[in-house]
Amino acid sequence: MTSIESAAPDAWFRLEKGRLELGGAWTIGASARLDGELRALKADGDVQIDASGLKKLDSSGAWLLLRTRRALEEGGAKVTGPDLPDSYRPLLDSLEKTKPQPAVKPPRAATFRRRLYKIGKATIQALDQGYSILGYLGRVTVETGEAIAKPKHNLRIAAIFHQVEETGINALPIVGLLSFLIGVVLAYQAIDQLKQFGAEQLTVNGLGIIVLREMGVLMTSIIVAGRSGSAFTAQIGTMRVNEEIDAMQTMGLNTVDVLVLPRIIGLVIALPLLTFYADIMALIGGWLMCYFNLGMTFPVFLRQLQGAVHVNTFLVGFIKAPVFAFVIALVGCYEGFQVERNAASVGLLTTRSVVESVFLVIVLDAAFSVMFSVLGI
Q1: Tens digits of residue pLDDT in 125-182
Q2: Which of 134, 152, 202, 244 minimizes the number of CB atoms within 10 Å of its CB?
Q3: CATH of the domain spanning 4-97
Q4: Dist. CA 295–CA 16, nearest whole Å
Q5: Residue 69 near residue 49 (C-beta atoms within 8 A)
Q6: 376: helix, strand or coil
Q7: 221-245 confidence digits (pLDDT tens)
């Protein structure tokens, strides 16, 4: 067995004739040096660890001591000890009870097969989600028909008007502000581009068509999906976590009549009105930009707008609003009922509700655009 000795006086060790002596201050300040020297330590046969010479010992030094003992044992040595002052024994015992954690393995590089598997798995999950929502749509449709057949028994008028207030009236400030700013941006960009061709007056035409046909209803629906759709999921999800829905079912109450229909009907009423309001605010924002950049007065703006748009232009955007509202409310309520009995699930499903609602709104808007184009509207 070779004789190995650490030369530093503050924290040292010496291996000689089957005896490993430790001394000095085995603290975090000396741990970097001791780590390298102890890794080179090798011994076989019997080894007695004598740590009675330690003056100081902290958790890093105690960990080095335990690691050295384990390394010697793995190398084939029969280790006894360590013998150390009684004041350091509790620290060493507490660290010794801690199980060593396995080394962290780096994640495997994503191969083509793994990527293909993830794509397939995501596709299956999306189809399953769509199938479940479609089934829920059927249930809501049946319940809605029954509610219309017996409105006095199934329709909760007070709850519907409450949802109209929550989703419509209370959303007026944010919808109005964002629509106004969108109108400003659209008009500014249109003026900037059309100036190159001397056709600044056509800014009003483009603004009116874009806002009334597409941007007004689309932006309003996205805002409502983030504001009201997420609220539907969070409210119903919290009731599910608190077992309020179970209590309602035990009492014989129909959860669709009580929780879903008022939200759907309320949003179907509120979103078209919000869309009309958003159209007006966007046009006002566009007019202000035309006034400051082109000196266009309000009567001139209105005459130009009247010649550019027709009733059909407004109706194309207005007809989309109830459909978008129905989809947003349906997805929000559906995800609320999917919440598991923990708080983390509420946040996860609320996020999913917003993403799905916005995705479906944009897909439906694209479908409407293609359909209206084919019909020549």
Answers
A1: 888 888 888 888 888 888 777 777 776 666 788 888 999 999 999 999 999 999 999 9
A2: 152
A3: 3.30.750.24
A4: 97
A5: yes
A6: coil
A7: 999 999 999 999 999 999 888 888 8
Angle made by CA atoms 296, 298, 301, in degrees to the nearest 5: 65
Band of residue 8 on the pLDDT scale cut at 50, 70, 90: very low
Rounded to the nearest angstrom, the gap between the alpha carbon of residue 354 and the centroid of all alpha carbons in its chain is: 9
Residue 125 has which token pair? 């999950």
As beta bridge partners, residue 56 has 25
Q: Which two tokens stand for residue 248?
A: 């309602």
| Residues 28 and 56: beta-carbon distance below 8 Å | no
Phi, psi of 83, rounded to the nearest 5 degrees? -95, 120
Strand segments (E) across the chain:
4-5, 11-16, 19-26, 46-57, 78-83
| Global pTM exceeds 0.70 | no
Nearest by Cα to 254 from 371, 155, 334, 186: 155
Single-letter amino acid, residue 104 = V
Alpha-carbon distances of 268 from 58, 327, 355, rounded to whole Å: 67, 9, 20
